[in-house]
Specification:
The N and C termini lie far apart (103 Å). 46% of the residues lie in helices and 7% in strands. α12 packs parallel to α16 and α17 packs across α18. It is mainly alpha-helical and 655 residues long.
Length: 655
């Protein structure tokens, strides 16, 4: 895709820069990768029989441009030598193609790029290269090399400011936010008709200062659709001052058919267009519509999306997690293993895990180990969550390895997970690669769901799984929200809904044969499954596993076991101010009997938390009861603590 306003021009100054760089071995028209010259660029021992790349078939000018592309990227280690050699066959075909169809050009800047690509594809098909079902060439490297060459030279020859160009590279824009573990970092205005291109650039420049590249890409796409429609309808317009509601109704009619089946994108692009109208009117852009934005797009034009429920949250079933644990050591490449360990342990997004810094991601306090990092999506920085010793040891092993290999050149940001060479040098691997590796493992090891179907992993499912796990273990909703770094409690509350749903299903499965209780006469009475929730009884066998169930004088404390409460174990029993006499023996005997009953229930169900806490309470009751049965008063403060004695009593009697 060629910039419609800017033409690549191989100036004398730029060609001199190319010739100055191609000195020494780089001047040769045949490069032998096993030559000692390339030793510093090898990442591993060369084993391939293919070891040369030849440039002699290329015409002068083009030959130097292509050699410079390879030499420059090899030198900065963003192109691996095995990739260079793999491009050898492609380069031979490209040379024949250029000599046949473009015999007179001396620079790749002289080609009309879109036309060139179509001719190149046609030529390759004639040479026997097949097409896939999606219309792509069976070998992607032919188009990949041409794309890389063209855009490399475009950036090399184009000295304009980034905002002046028709394709922005957000990596070159100071302050721009983009997801480093994804490949998307370009914003192209080439498909926006020329009359509206500057308006789109002006608006996106503002948006890029506030939003991430992904959001700006969505905004740009919404403008691309709208401006192309308007330009086809009003070919002479140079602004949208005269835009009417009737124009928008025609656009919406076309738009509905264009986005059919993509409800989320349908809404996103309409919201983006409405925001564009609102902003350019508030900012008083001269090209803005004269009619208010509220008269152009109505609220009812934007359909309501299906509200996400707990059924839409895709978490990983326990059985699948167990299969994953059993086969994790077979995950390839193995450098994905610690990433999966952290996705499971932290519940962070893949982008957050891949953004960890080896010099500050692990922290040890008196409480234990913490994983530390930033959560850019919700602007939570220096976020930390607790991890186990085992997970910390995995992280430490990665830290030690990465620190040893890192330099200011190959890992300037001190990333924990980083590519030391190749096109992603100094950047984290793409998050999608983790998903691909997990699904390869699922296929190889037959990891299946509860229905016996092959399970399909998604990175974000680990986050949902952690949220459900924390709720199931009794963590307070606000603490879960803090752990997950949610911007609002809405998502966190959905995890709680999942808990209720899954617990209800488990409860129904466990009680499908019926429930019984014992009446005061000792007779077993069956409980109707559909009426039990309305009965005023406590089914001890189905008390949630994360609750304490501690006997209190006036009932039972059913708080989550991870929530601290200083009143639960009746602090009065250990307080020096508690004064109790033999008059209270019946009450103590009753409490002891009830506490013992709770302990027996806990032991029968394997609820160690019940047993431990109620045992502590029992010991306090029994200690006091023993004192009372000796005919004594239990009062740690003693007689002097509650009554006047000696001279104090005489004085008190006279007052």
């Amino acid at each position: 895709m060629k910039d419609a306003k800017f033409k690549i021009l191989a100036t004398t100054a730029k060609m001199n820069e190319i010739h100055a760089a191609l000195k020494g071995y780089w001047e040769n028209d045949t490069w032998v990768i096993t030559d000692p010259f390339f030793d510093e660029f090898h990442t591993k021992k060369w084993t391939s029989t293919n070891r040369t790349i030849v440039f002699s078939q290329l015409k002068p000018g083009i030959k130097e441009e292509i050699k410079y592309f390879f030499a420059y990227r090899i030198s900065i280690k963003t192109l691996r030598l095995n990739t260079v050699v793999a491009y050898g066959t492609t380069l031979n075909n490209l040379a024949v193609f250029l000599n046949k169809l473009y015999p007179n050009i001396t620079s790749l800047g002289d080609i009309a790029y879109e036309k060139f690509l179509m001719q190149w594809r046609s030529y390759l098909i004639e040479q026997g290269l097949s097409l896939k079902t999606n219309g792509c060439l069976s070998s992607h490297q032919y188009e990949s090399l041409v794309n890389q060459l063209y855009f490399f030279l475009q950036n090399f020859y184009d000295d304009r400011e980034e905002f002046e160009k028709d394709i922005w590279d957000v990596r070159r824009i100071s302050g721009a936010r983009f997801t480093d573990n994804k490949a998307g970092y370009l914003l192209s205005f080439l498909d926006i008709p020329l009359p509206y291109r500057q308006l789109a650039k002006k608006y996106l420049k503002v948006r890029l200062g506030r939003c991430c590249q992904k959001q700006c890409y969505s905004d740009l796409f919404s403008l691309r659709l709208f401006f192309r429609f308007i330009h086809n309808k009003y070919t002479r317009w140079r602004d949208i001052k005269l835009l009417t509601r009737n124009d928008m109704e025609e656009y919406l009619s076309w738009y509905r058919s264009y986005t059919a089946g993509y409800s989320v994108k349908h809404v996103d692009f309409l919201n983006g267009l409405r925001m564009f109208f609102e902003y350019i009117q508030r900012a008083e852009y001269p090209e803005a519509p004269e009619k208010p934005s509220v008269c152009l797009i109505f609220n009812e034009d934007i359909p309501r999306l299906h509200k996400t429920t707990e059924n839409d949250i895709k978490y990983i079933p326990e059985g699948v997690l167990q299969q994953l644990d059993d086969n994790l050591e077979n995950l390839t490449p193995p450098d994905h293993i610690p990433k999966v360990v952290l996705l499971r342990a932290s519940g962070w997004r893949a982008s957050d895990v891949l953004n960890l810094r080896y010099d500050k991601c692990l922290e040890r306090t008196v409480q234990g180990w913490w994983l530390c990092g930033d959560i850019p999506k919700t602007n939570v920085f220096n976020h930390r969550v607790p991890i186990t010793d085992e997970v910390a040891s995995v992280v430490q092993a990665v830290i030690d390895e990465v620190r040893e290999k890192s330099t200011p050149d190959n890992n300037p940001r001190k990333l924990l997970f980083v590519r030391f060479d190749g096109k992603r040098k100094g950047r984290p691997p793409e998050g999608e690669q983790i998903k691909y590796a997990l699904n390869r493992l699922a296929k190889e090891c037959n990891i299946v769901d509860d229905q016996g179907q092959l399970f399909h992993f998604k990175n974000h499912a680990f986050r949902h799984t952690k949220g459900v796990e924390l709720i199931n273990n009794g963590m307070n909703i606000l603490h879960v929200m803090k752990w997950m770094a949610h911007a609002s409690p809405e998502m966190t509350l959905r995890y709680a809904q999942i808990l209720d749903t899954t617990m209800r299903k488990s409860w129904e499965d466990a009680t499908k044969n019926g429930l019984f209780r014992i009446d005061p006469s000792g007779k077993a009475i069956k409980i109707d499954l559909f009426d039990i929730e309305n009965e005023d009884l406590i089914e001890w066998w189905y008390i949630r596993s994360n609750l304490d169930a501690v006997r209190m004088p006036l009932g039972y404390c059913m708080k989550p076991n991870k929530v601290e409460c200083k009143h639960q174990l009746n602090p009065c029993l250990t307080c020096r101010n508690l004064c109790t006499t033999t008059d209270f023996i019946p009450q103590y005997e009753l409490e002891i009997m009830e506490v013992k009953a709770v302990i027996q229930r806990g032991m029968a169900q394997g609820r160690t938390i019940w047993v431990e806490k109620n045992q502590t309470l029992l010991e306090r009751y029994e200690a006091i009861l023993a004192v009372l049965k000796d005919g004594k008063t239990h009062h740690l403060a003693g007689k002097r603590g509650r009554e006047y004695v000696g001279e104090e009593r005489a004085y008190a009697g006279n007052t």
